Each structure stands twice: as C-alpha cells, then as structure tokens.
Amino acid sequence: MNNQFVGKVKAGEIITYIVLILLVLFTIFPILFMLTASFMDAKQILAMPFKWIPSKEYFTSSSRTFMTNFVKAIRGNNNNNIFFTAMLNSLLVAITCAVTTVFFSALCGYGLAKFRFKGRNVVFMAIMSTMMIPFEAIMIPLYMVTRSVGLMNTLPGLIVPFAISAFGVFQMRQYLLTFPSEFLDASRVDGLREFGIFLRIVLPNSTPVIATLGILSFRNQWDNLLWPMLCAQAERLKTLPLYIAGFAEEKQTDEGALMACAFLASIPMFILFFTLSKYFLGGAAVFESRKG
Q1: Exposed (0-12), middle (13-18) or buried (19+): which is 55, by Cβ within 10 Å?
Q2: Predicted model pTM
Q3: Which residue has the higher pLDDT, 136 or 54?
C-alpha cells in the first residue's frame, strides 16, 4: 500500500517536472530565437528548417561581420542614428510612469484601505470599473484631450495619461488592508501627520508590492506602441517600440537587424527584472497570500 502510494507520488512529481520543463522551454523559445537570429542574415533566418547556429559563411563573408546586424540596428534603416535617443525616451517615460504609478497608487490605496468615509466602497468600485474599459475605447477621446491642452509631441504627453493605474490602486489597497493599523495609531500618538505616516511608515514597509507594481508599470510603458504612435509624431520623441516598428515598415525588411534591435531593446527589461526579482517574486507571493 505504502509502496504504491510512494510510486504514485513519484510519478506525479515526474509528470509535474516534465510539464514545468516544457513550459519553460516554450517560454524561452522566442527569446532564444531572437538571440540566434540577431547574428544571422535574412536568408538564414527564413530558411526552413531553421538552423539555430549561424553558418560559417556569415562570419567569413567580406560584406558582413559578426556585429553587422547590431550596427544597423543602432544606425537605423535610414541611418538616422536615433537608437540611443529612442532608448533614452523609453527609459524616461517608463521610469517616470513607474514612479508616479507606484506613488499615486499607494497613496490612493492607503486612503481606501485605512480611512473610513462614506462612499468608500463606491469610489473603489468606480475605480475598478475603469479596468473593464479597453484602451482602444478611450484612445481617441484621450488623444483629443491631449491635443487640446497642448501636450502633443511632448514627453509629458507620453507620461501624464499613464501616471496612475486602476490595477495599481487595487494591488496597493489589497496589500494595505492587512497592514498593521497599530503602527499607524502609534505614529499618530507620536504626533506624525498622515502624509508623514504614509512616507515614513507605509512606503518603507511595502517594498515587495512596490517592486512588483513598479516592474509591471515599467514593462507596460516600455512595450507601449499604440499611444506613442499617436502622440509622438516628432522624430526626437520616438520610443523604442516606434523605432523597432520602423524596421517592419520598410518594403524590404532586414530581419537580422530587426532581431538585433529587439534584442538590444530587451536588455534593460532583463536587467530590471533580475535586479528586483527577489522583491518581485516576494511581492507576488505576499499579494496572493493576502488576497486569499
């Protein structure tokens, strides 16, 4: 009986590991393809079956070198050399949106979680209801408002519409609902004002959820293509998604340079995630446990 039970447990664990390994391979497959293809020319990328290792001819050809795709990715299709400008714009927009989203979401979530006032739940549900509205439904009205206040072709025009998110408010509220109120009461007794409590007590003790929300907010704006396409018509305001899209707009797309550009654009996201991974995973675990 015991041997049968142990055998079933081991078989279940083996199946679980196999499924997890397959999921990991399925997840990293596009990343491996992007990395490998960034060192190939278009002919090798489109060849069937796909060869994961670049051929020797690619490295020995007099017309191409090992870093040809990366050089073209940085120079651009029309040699405008705005790659680093686009990356700086993306970094500025993504970092600013992440910081403002974390701050305002935490402030709003703190008020909804720790203050009792009439209509609190109504306000919260009204904020949550905005999550049901797709961005495409409000895109044109948002564009008209942005244009009317003179924020078109400006960095604030790329940042202000995403300075706070309903999901961020939800995440911070759920986390702060179980934040010990005794700490807050003790701070009030010591004479600390509410905003001081928020800055000195709440924020420093909410690192996991702040890191989680910050990474998600950064990623959303780092990948944002639709809004910059509408709001940033000037060359100097192009973000990386717009810059990458420029490669696909050409009549004869250079797939190798496109993959190299996509790989370079992925590096800051990888650095951010692996730097804050322990906070991100910890914040996700704490959020799930508190939600349950």
Answers
A1: middle
A2: 0.81
A3: 136
